[in-house]
Structures are given as structure tokens and as C-alpha cells.
Write a structure and sequence with these properties.
The structure is a homodimer.
Chain A lengths: L2 H27 L6 H8 L3 H7 L3 H26 L5 H18 L1 H16 L5 H27 L8 H30 L3 H16 L3
Chain A binds a DNA duplex through helix 2 and helix 3.
Chain lengths: 214, 214
DNA sequence: GATAAAGCATGACCGCTGGTCAGAAATAAG
DNA sequence: CTTATTTCTGACCAGCGGTCATGCTTTATC
């Protein structure tokens, strides 16, 4: 009989329902200040029930992080699909733009990926959600490396660059910049009279110079 | 009589003593797991006394963050003093190396700057320590901008770059990369067979290409 | 339909943490 | 020595993440 499967489906549905609600109140009030009691009230479930579906509060973060990373990956994949026959350099650029678009269009998701940055790594091979999120991130990184490779093959990217380190630098660079803008953006806008958009444009331009063949 | 000044001096000494002890146990055990009771025991003071010298636990972090930033600034300043008549590009490079050296030689301090990254900004104009740390960071940033300017003047750096955004990108880039290496370094070492040093070398090389005149 | 078994939901409860405060102790002033 | 002031103390508190004995609902068996 299909009872078992139905139960499993229902369980998954409830899990998603909890996540939906958690996302809402985490993003509205700030994930730190929301207590598990708050979430219990918001979901109209008892606190104990929450812990039936998620080992602890961290697990909730990591589960939302999975959604975030999935979204990020989707946008980066779409960016490549949109320009199937672009050269490698253009592909790298497209990936960068997609990453930026993700951070700007889904700031709460982006925040969650930052919050889980360390958590995700320390919980690898121990938490299903950590593994899943890591997997999406890895896929994105592979796309970046492939684009770099393609660029070297088609001559749009300097031949003498090592793929791995270059990809890591590009990733870290963009990640770091978005983080700085996120936290100190308003400050720099006042101080330097420069908008975040202008800085991002500069970053993309500078990345081009980095990769250009001599 | 000099009683008042002596008291003030003693107060400052005790404050530093608390910070010294806090640094020790925070860095040895991890700042998160150390409780204020732990710190009280370690300092041989009562918990209440700790709160006489620091508003709360965050204030302790921010105060240690000041020490960290001071160290960072010192190292970056020394880097410039060591090569007084280098051209702008070399100065930028020297600053980058100094920043990296700071992160590698004082990993606990570096960790603390990361932990306080957001805190420091949100507490600006409200917390003496936040302001002080921010000031040191600002000085470093100014050094970077001046080096870029000098580079444009002496022809070692592309003329068409905007100083502000370029400095921000460089800063964010290095910051982001060090963070990635810090958290996922071991992972990438396994995955890509690339050491952190090699990635850092790549980063410096790539930065050069970014700034080079055509 | 009655009964047993299994799974699920509950919320009172726990330990621990950052933070407080009334009173004790120490120091300075008269 | 007495008084006034500053400094220190640790028992105490509220709030948090997390647990678990208890009761309830659903499923399986006859």
C-alpha cells in the first residue's frame, strides 16, 4: 500500500512549510533575533515538532542556504545558456554578472550564504544540507573553470594563467567585494562619492584586464 | 595630589590586563566557547568587575579588534617605509604583501578582524573601540589610494583607472581571497592540488596585470 | 468495529549564557 | 577614628537552544 510514501511526502511537505515560514521571519526580522519559540509560534507548531524536522537551528540555516545556493547555481547556469557560443572570456564575465545579479536580487539568500560560509565547510560529510549546498557551489566553480579553459583554447584569455588558482582568485575577489559593499557600501558612498554599481563595474573591467592576453 | 591620575592609570592597566587575558583564552579555546565566567576565572576577577571595564562581550571583541587593526596598519606602514622610493605599482604590491603577512603571522588577530567586520561598521559613532579600529582601517585604505595615485603619476599604473573603485576592488579582492583560503583552503588543496601560497602568488600576479598600463 | 502497536506532536522543563545590582570591601577625605 | 566615595563581588535573573515523558492520532491486525 502507498501509505508509507504518502507519509514521506507529507513529511517533506511539512519540512518545506517550516522552511518557508522560517525564511519569511528570518529575513524580515533577522535570523539572529528570531528564537525557536518565535518560529514555533509562526508555524503554529510546538517547539518540539520543529526539532523533529531539523536537528537544530543551524540545520535550518543550512537548509535555507541550500535554497540560496540552488538559486545562485540556476542563475549562473542560465547566464551560460543565454550565450551559448560566447568565447571563454565572455562566459567568465557572464558568470560574474550572474553572481552579482544573484546577490542583488536575492540579498537575503546572499546573506544566508555568507552566514553559512564557514558552517557549510565544517559540517561537510556530517550534514546532508551542508553537502548539498557545497555541491551547488562546486558546480558553479566548475563552470568558472571550464569557461576559463575555453577562453584559453579560443585565445580570449591569457594562456599562461593556471586555471585553478585563477578561478579561486576570481571567486574570492567577487565574493570579497560584494561583502565589503554589503557592509560598508553606504559608508564608501559617502566617503568616496562612488556608488556600488560603479564599483562593481570597475571590478568587472579590472577582471577583464586580469585575464586579457598580452 | 596625583591620586586621580594614578587611578586612571591603574584603571587603564587593568583594562589592558583583562584584554591580554581575554586574548589568550579567546585565541586558545575559540572566542565563541569562552564564557564571561571563564574569563572571570582566568583574570581572577569577578564577573561584575569585567562589566565595569567593558560594556559587554562584543566590546571585548571590538577592543581586541583594535589591537589587530593597529598591527595590520603598522605592518602596512612598515612595508612602505622599507621601500621609500619604489614606484606606485611596487608600493601597491608591498601593501598587498604586508596585508597577507599580517593575516598569516597573526591568524588570530586576522580572524578577529573578520569577526568584527560587520560589528565595527554597525557600531560606528557609538563605540569608542569601533571608531578606533575603523580609523586604522581607513588609514590603510588611504595608503592604498595614495600608492595608486603615485603609480598613475609615475606611469607604473594605468592612467584610466579610477582610484577609489580600484582601491576598493583590490581591498575586497584580497580580503575575499584570504577568507576563502582560510575556510576552504584545505579543501581546495585536496581538490585542486594547489597550495594556499600558490594561490596567493597567482593573486598578486593577477593584480599586477589588472593595474598595468596597456 | 475493537484492540494493539507505532508514530507523531506537545509544552513543561533543563542547563547554560550574557548581563545586573544590592551590598560588602577597600580606599580616600576630613 | 569616622565618614564619604569608589571599587569590587557573586548570587541572581531572564532568555535562549534543546530535550523528553506524556498523551494523542493514525495505522495495522484480527
Amino acid at each position: 500500500m502507498g501509505t508509507a510514501e504518502r507519509k514521506l511526502r507529507e513529511k517533506e511537505q511539512r519540512r518545506q512549510y517550516i522552511l518557508d515560514t522560517a525564511e519569511q521571519i528570518f529575513f524580515k526580522q533577522g535570523a539572529d533575533v528570531v528564537t525557536m519559540d518565535d518560529l514555533a509560534r509562526a508555524t503554529e507548531l510546538s517547539k518540539g515538532t520543529l526539532y523533529l524536522y531539523f536537528r537544530n537551528k543551524e540545520a535550518l540555516f543550512l537548509a535555507i542556504n541550500v535554497r540560496a545556493k540552488k538559486q545562485m547555481r540556476e542563475m549562473m547556469e542560465q547566464a551560460l545558456i543565454a550565450e551559448p557560443k560566447a568565447n571563454g572570456l565572455l562566459q567568465v564575465q557572464a558568470l560574474g554578472r550572474a553572481y552579482i545579479a544573484f546577490a542583488m536580487e536575492y540579498p537575503d539568500y546572499y546573506q544566508m550564504t555568507l552566514r553559512c560560509f564557514t558552517l557549510e565547510t565544517t559540517h561537510l560529510d556530517q550534514d546532508r544540507y551542508a553537502d548539498e549546498a557545497h555541491y551547488h557551489g562546486e558546480k558553479c566553480f566548475e563552470m568558472l573553470m571550464l569557461a576559463l579553459q575555453k577562453g584559453q583554447a579560443d585565445g580570449s584569455i591569457a594562456q599562461d594563467l593556471e586555471i585553478g588558482p585563477t578561478a579561486l582568485v576570481l571567486w574570492g575577489q567577487l565574493n570579497g567585494l560584494m561583502q565589503v559593499l554589503d557592509v560598508k557600501g553606504p559608508y564608501f558612498q559617502r566617503k568616496l562619492k562612488v556608488t556600488a554599481d560603479a564599483v562593481i563595474a570597475s571590478c568587472l573591467e579590472l577582471s577583464l584586464r586580469m585575464l586579457n592576453p598580452r
